[in-house]
Amino acid sequence: MNDSSTPAGAREYRTEELARAAGIPVRTLRFYRERRLLPPPRREGRIAWYSEEHLARLRVIADLLERGHTLGGIAELLAAWESGQDVAELLGLEAAIGAPWSQETEVEVSVEELASTFPGEVDADSLAASLELGYLRHEGDKLVHVSRRLLDASGALVAEGVPLAAVLATARGVRASADALADQFVELIVDQLLPDLDEPLPPGEPTRLAEALDRLRDVARTVVDVEFALAMDRRVQREVKRIGTARHSR
Q1: Which parts form a coiled-coil structure per UniProt (predicted)?
Q2: Which fold has domain 12-83?
């Protein structure tokens, strides 16, 4: 079934045939059409005919859904594709923006193992606080700690005589400060480096931005590390002076 707009020899599919070839229900195909994720089919009377391009589009949609994209995000990517932008570049930029910063190793722990790491400190309150902070989470009948390094650091503090309740209380403040730092860096990058992503980007620009964002990860870590060390120096010196003043006043 070909007309003047269909290349000779090109295969065409009825609705049911296309859905079967793409491995999706017919209702899903119709939903994609309603959301304008697919271009209109060729019509011959009441029969809709789809091309290989429609099948390719459905396979792209399936791949993007498998990667975790929403239908709204897919629609934007497909619109960019149709406007001539390189979708692979756009996906690379999106991956660079959304790539995780943390490289922590999760570890399964039992209540008994926690009790061994924090002798006499593990109770219902400490478990609830750890779950609330997100340090621990339930996975079936197991507990998973979000970071081996944080678990070891907490254990080291408790081993030095710091109560676990105090460690967790301090963690709440550290979390708030870390969130505030992250907000500042995100605002800086969005305001100063990222263009209006709703507008078409010139060829090569998504790749350049993705590479710049990747480099800035180490820059951000360096700034936080240096500023924290300098802040500790200032705070410790103030404490040393306070202790010295208190001693001399006796």
Answers
A1: none
A2: Multidrug-efflux Transporter Regulator; Chain: A; Domain 2 (1.10.1660)
